[in-house]
């Protein structure tokens, strides 16, 4: 009844469900029913008496006279009573290590990428302001043909291939195995010494010299594999009374040898898994990526690495420890970028190009070395062709001859250090053996990461040694070249 009276005397609309006679009756009786006094200083009391849980509006449940039916605004207190029940429960923070709930960090990844882009843009702008534009392709054009050692080197490498083929043909004809081994060893040694002397004397562009010496190492390793595998096949062929064994001796041909030289493998086999056809779209897309990323790597070397190397000479001369540390840290970022770019160019793009041209089906040239929890895993997975060659022609034969595993691993790293030193020292005309001892220094680091640290800690140790070690060696070799050849 009081609700009806308040409705009649207030501005609230009367719901249509009430009849006009009842409405008039309520309005006439409103003068006889006094309205309860409401004090202005207590607004909450007014809301409580009109809409609160103890008021007639909240306790009356009639169909026509309820507060909702009469158009009253129900207070938030009433609406939230049931929702407040069960609002809290035992939970962990999303970023806590104890949290078991799946949390998406896509937004955080986007933020990290944006910050990385902005940081690199700032580096680009700062570099242009400090050193200007250093890109000049004119010095890459060499008019003097006497400074094109690649032509003479290609001719020499063909000579070594033909000599290896002729020795194998003589072995089929009855030449003694000891004589074959001596001749093949001399041929392999010549394939390394003569091209290295050519690069040392002609003095090509250092980048060109590095590429040429890498080619020399690849040819040397392939010639050794061709020699040793055919020696094993020949022994099986003779034991089977010269019956064709696994394709031998029909594989001894110039075509087979040159085809092996074009394959993205270093271990010789007569047969390899093949693909049905050449995918030309795939091939040209890889070539296009090689051109683009090669140009990007060249720009980063010229614009970001060489200026830092030039400024590091003064710090090394003065023995400025802080200056040397600052130079290494400044080199770390562009150096790892360039290394990753050329790793992708060679192991993913170039080797896939060779595989596509030769229709080779095995395309596994690296594994997830970036997840290395130890240095040993990195050396086993970042360069699968070399790992296979070392395993087949160095490690396994030594283990069969009862050498210990540790000594065999030591010999593997000695040979790897020789290759690295050859690739660096000959083109830059400086023999310091830093690359060689840097490879031998991986052995104690392998022991540390294998025995003392594991999991994510081992991965962090690997990345820190990788990011800081390589630019340090690069800075040391640059300093030696500047002091011995250019500054004099």
Fill in the keyword field for this structure:
68% helix, globular, 18 helices, 488 residues, mainly alpha
Descriptive notes:
The chain is 68% helix and 0% strand. The chain is mostly helical. Helix 8 runs antiparallel to helix 9 (206-239), helix 8 runs parallel beside helix 15 (405-428) and helix 12 (321-358) crosses helix 18. The radius of gyration is 40 Å and the shape is globular.
Give a short synopsis of this structure.
The chain is an all-alpha fold and 488 residues long.
* Total helical segments: 18
Shape: globular
Write the element-wise H/E pattern from the N-terminal end onward: HHHHHHHHHHHHHHHHHH
Number of strands: 0
Q: Which spans of ≥5 residues are poorly predicted at pLDDT below 50?
A: 7-19, 29-33, 35-74
Task: Report, as a whole number of angstroms, the end-to-end distance.
Answer: 111 Å
Overall pLDDT metric: 80
Main beta sheet: none
Helix content: 55-70%
- Strand fraction: under 5%
Radius of gyration: 40 Å
Structural class by sheet pairing and helices: mainly alpha
Give the oligomeric state.
single chain
């Amino acid at each position: 009844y009081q609700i009806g009276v308040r409705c009649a005397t207030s501005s609230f609309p009367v719901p249509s469900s009430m009849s006009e006679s009842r409405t008039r009756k309520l309005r006439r009786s409103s003068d006889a029913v006094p309205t309860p006094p409401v004090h202005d200083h207590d607004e909450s009391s007014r809301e409580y008496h009109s809409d609160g849980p103890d008021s007639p509006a909240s306790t009356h449940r009639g169909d026509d006279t309820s507060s909702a039916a009469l158009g009253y605004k129900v207070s938030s207190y009433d609406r939230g009573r049931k929702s407040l029940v069960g609002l809290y429960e035992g939970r962990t923070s999303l970023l806590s290590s104890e949290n078991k709930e799946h949390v998406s960090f896509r937004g955080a990844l986007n933020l990290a990428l944006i910050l990385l882009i902005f940081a690199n843009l700032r580096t680009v702008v700062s570099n242009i302001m400090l050193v200007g534009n250093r890109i000049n392709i004119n010095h890459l054009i060499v008019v003097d043909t006497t400074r094109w050692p690649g032509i003479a080197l290609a001719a020499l490498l063909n000579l070594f291939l033909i000599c290896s083929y002729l020795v194998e043909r003589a072995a089929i004809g009855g030449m003694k195995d000891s004589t074959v081994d001596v001749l093949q060893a001399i041929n392999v040694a010549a394939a390394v010494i003569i091209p290295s002397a050519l690069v040392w004397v002609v003095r090509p562009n250092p980048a060109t010299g590095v590429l040429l010496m890498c080619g020399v190492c690849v040819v040397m390793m392939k010639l050794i594999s061709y020699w040793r595998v055919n020696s094993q096949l020949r022994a099986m062929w003779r034991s089977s009374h010269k019956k064709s064994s696994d394709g031998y001796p029909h594989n001894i041909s110039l075509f087979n040898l040159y085809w092996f030289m074009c394959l993205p493998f270093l271990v010789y086999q007569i047969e390899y898994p093949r693909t049905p056809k050449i995918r030309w779209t795939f091939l040209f897309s890889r070539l296009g990526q090689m051109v683009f990323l090669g140009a990007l790597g060249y720009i980063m070397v010229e614009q970001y690495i060489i200026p830092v190397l030039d400024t590091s000479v003064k710090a090394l001369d003065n023995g400025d420890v802080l200056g040397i540390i600052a130079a290494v840290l400044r080199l770390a970022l562009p150096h790892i970028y360039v290394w990753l770019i050329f790793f992708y160019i060679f192991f993913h793009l170039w080797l896939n190009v060779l595989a596509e041209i030769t229709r080779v089906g095995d395309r596994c040239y690296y594994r997830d070395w970036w997840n290395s929890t130890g240095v040993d895993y990195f050396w086993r997975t970042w360069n699968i062709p070399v790992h296979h060659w070392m395993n087949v022609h160095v490690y396994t034969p030594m283990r069969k001859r009862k050498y210990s595993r540790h000594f065999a691993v030591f010999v593997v790293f000695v040979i790897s250090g020789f290759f690295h030193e050859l690739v660096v020292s000959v083109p830059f005309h400086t023999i310091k053996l830093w690359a060689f001892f840097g490879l031998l220094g991986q052995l104690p680091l392998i022991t540390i990461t294998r025995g003392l640290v594991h999991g994510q800690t081992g991965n962090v140790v690997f990345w820190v040694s990788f990011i800081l070690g390589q630019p340090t060696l690069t800075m040391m070799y640059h300093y030696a070249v500047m002091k011995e050849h250019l500054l004099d």
